[in-house]
Amino acid sequence: MRNGEVSYWWQARGIPQRRPSLPGSTDADVCIVGAGYTGLWTAYYLKRADPALRVVVLEASFAGFGASGRNGGWVTAALPGSRERYARHPRGQDGVRELEAQLRDTVDEVARVCAAEGIDAGLVKGGTLSIATTAAQEARLRRQLEQDRAWGDDARIVRYLDGTELATRLQVTGAVGALYSPHCARVQPAALVAGLAEAADRAGVQLYEATPVTSISSGRARTPAGDVRAPYILRCTEGFTADIPGQHRTLLPMNSSMIVTGPLSEEAWKTIGWDGFETLGDEAHAYIYAQRTPDGRIALGGRGVPYRFGSGLDHDGAIAPSTIAQLGRILRRMFPAATGAGIEHAWCGVLGVPRDWCATVTLDRQAGLGWAGGYTGHGVAAANLAGRTLADLVRGIPSPLTTLPWVGHRSPRWEPEPARWAGVHSLYALYRTADRLESARRSPRTSVLARVGDLISGIPH
Ligand SMILES: Cc1cc2nc3c(=O)[nH]c(=O)nc-3n(C[C@H](O)[C@H](O)[C@H](O)COP(=O)(O)OP(=O)(O)OC[C@H]3O[C@@H](n4cnc5c(N)ncnc54)[C@H](O)[C@@H]3O)c2cc1C
Prior knowledge:
This protein is an alpha/beta fold. The chain contains twelve helices and 21 strands. It has helices spanning 8-13, 37-49, 83-86, 92-117, 135-150, 163-169, 189-203, 266-272, 321-334, 379-395, 419-440, 448-457, and strands at 2-3, 26-27, 30-33, 55-58, 74-76, 128-132, 159-162, 177-181, 184-186, 206-208, 215-217, 220-223, 226-229, 232-235, 252-261, 279-282, 289-292, 298-302, 343-353, 360-364, 369-373.
């Protein structure tokens, strides 16, 4: 079994040859730091809108090295944050509904660009299922549905499936019901980011790899190879942001871990079903997410070790054997028919979590500094919308995107260490215990431990 090596997605696709590093100091109209989905979509849309712009992207490692090449492959319209918090924006609830509508359209926009640019990322828009396996989870699903209806989401956006209906789509041991939304697609994430980087190359973006930015200030991004001077510098480093001087407490690098099975036999797929390629998650507090991959495997992720002291990062995605064992147990419990396929690869990555769990897209025109991120694990589609929005903000074009409630959103900073480490670890200890307690009893009530966890974290529910 392979562990780390960035991710299974990259090993399956093959890590491309490195692009050149920045050859020396240079000038640009826009300098983007970080070549994940956020940076690359921003660069792509800027060049598509105005081919004369000189757009430079600086990437510490290679395009897609971060979460964009390691994630669960859900191109999801899920809101990265809380409706109630975004509704504090002057546009109120209407602004939130507009943001959610834009995110739904974004799933189709990603598919449209994949088709237009010939990006073969195995994209299938099969929707998404959030399943319940305990009475408490089922009660949460129903409460969620009530809230969605109160916000105006009708059955075209989300609907309830009982256990029998769910079983016609796929067999998950113990599943008693699910919420289904059609607004999600499955992709091979590394194929998406690699294809996007190539599309950016073709559009004329200057993408330099192995070029770490050591500091960002108005008009200047510094690197060991020289400076890029530009009137606009955009920070698109999500889970890596804590390493940039001055940003240590902006976004918490939350770790997420994944495993992938070997290819399943035809017989196993007949037992499981899953012919609709829905992405699959659950309603546990320490939740899991999964997809049926384009090459006939199951990829499944969960929290594992949630956070490393001092906002530390992983080493090329390697994860602890105990996390692999834990995810393996969940996989075998959910899909006994997949047991024979074994586990072939495990890895992890970091995503950016703001203190109030709400994402931001912002540009200070005077300082010429902007950034986007903090998608709290819902970044694949959101980064496309953020990229289009940053492109409009830089070009000074008022558009329906530039007034969305996440534009200019300000999250509080994280606590200093050791409070940050202690907070995150106790939070997940509470969540795991709450999940165990809820599994052991039939009560539809959410465990009080999970509520305590929500209070500590400020996670909106
Ligand atoms: C395991 C995992 C599973 C996930 N699953 C999903 C999912 O299924 N659906 C979903 O919507 N979201 C998911 N997410 C979240 C999603 O992947 C991210 O939110 C999204 O990819 C963020 O894109 P980004 O471009 O902002 O950041 P990243 O992809 O992390 O890119 C940041 C880039 O910046 C570079 N960089 C960092 N520092 C510097 C520097 N100083 N100088 C130059 N370059 C720098 C990094 O090398 C990296 O390439 C998941 C995340 C993880 C880790």
